[in-house]
Amino acid sequence: MRCVLHGIPALGLALLVCGAQGFFLPNVTHLEKLLSKYQQDRPHSRARRAIPRVDQEEILMLHNKLRGQVSPPASNMEHMTWDEELARSAAAWAQECIWEHGPTSLLVSIGQNLAVHWGRYRSPGFHVQSWYDEVKDYTYPYPHECNPWCPERCSGAMCTHYTQIVWATTTKIGCAVNTCRRMNVWGDVWENAVYLVCNYSPKGNWIGEAPYKTGRPCSQCPPSYGGGCRNNLCYREETFHQKPETDEMNEVETAPNPEEKHVWVQPRVIRPTKPKKAPAVSYMTQVVKCDTKMKDKCKGSTCNRYQCPAGCLHNRAKIFGTLFYESASSICRAAFTTASWTTREAWWTSPGTARSPFSSSPRETACSL
């Protein structure tokens, strides 16, 4: 979801905080040809990683550090690990160089944070910290405030980057960085824009839920952790230790030795199956007023989803346009004016640009614009 932001400086630094392949080797000659590329002094091409190892380690370390120091303290915050599948999906989207969340088919099952900058170098950790710094605008909902749904209180333009980082049950992350030669960011074309995409699983930011439970660290960890706790995070001791990767690893897959055969057959266990449930789809929203303008809520990030109070259709907030609305228009008035509403309350995502048509689709007792 994109919004137009005017007045971005033309010079200087601009910041926005909105796999290994296997080869079949038929004979030795083929293998020798492949290996010869790495025995010569000239540069060679190889499959690029989604993100350099040093950046991967920085992102993962910083996420776990920040998750372990939330305030109020979390009683069920789980340790986060790197996931290559998420990294590959992040790389695929980063290569599209589109400044919006996507692809749509994945957003139902994953969380996603985006950042882009141009100018002097900024590490991925700089953007992760910027996402987390939204905490200054976020008010944690205590259990007594959740009856049964928790209020979502964000006094700034966006808090969902922060809440995704500290969502207790999100345990996997995969990120990618791509340099886009030309990238349209809110109507302006940025050259050599550095685009960071981080995907999360299981996704967070569910409406009506707090990002974590508060209490003594690790006092409410899931049983699967066996009581393990490290740096205030529910932690499971792993028996598998991955070998450190170097530039020469995972280049060529050699043929297995015929004398070494390791066969392990898992015993078949028949268990009764439960009927599959359709996945619930929900989104984090931000409460706005009837007179809140579009241009005031899309600063420095991709746009959020908003909840408008009842009665905005007859409010005196100004709108400019018919079907197509200027960014100075009231978000709620524009939406209510465009669509036919039969409910007292509405939820929607703000439009992608300052002059874009709204479209509506009903979902149970609400409409999404």
UniProtKB/TrEMBL annotation:
One Pfam family cited in the UniProt record for this chain: CAP
Polar residues composition bias: residue spans: 350-369
SMART domains for this protein: LCCL (SM00603), SCP (SM00198)
GO cellular component: extracellular region
Top-rank lineage group of the source organism: Eukaryota
Signal peptide boundaries: 1-22
Stretches for region Disordered: 349-369
Entries under SUPFAM superfamilies matching the protein: LCCL domain, PR-1-like
Keywords: Repeat, Signal
InterPro entries xrefs: Allrgn_V5/Tpx1_CS, CAP_dom, CAP_sf, CRISP-related, LCCL, LCCL_sf
PROSITE patterns reported for this sequence: CRISP_2, LCCL
Domain LCCL, chain residue ranges per copy: 284-335
Coiled coil: none
Alphabetical list of PANTHER family matching this protein: CYSTEINE-RICH SECRETORY PROTEIN-RELATED
Descriptive protein name: CRISPLD2
Organism: Sus scrofa
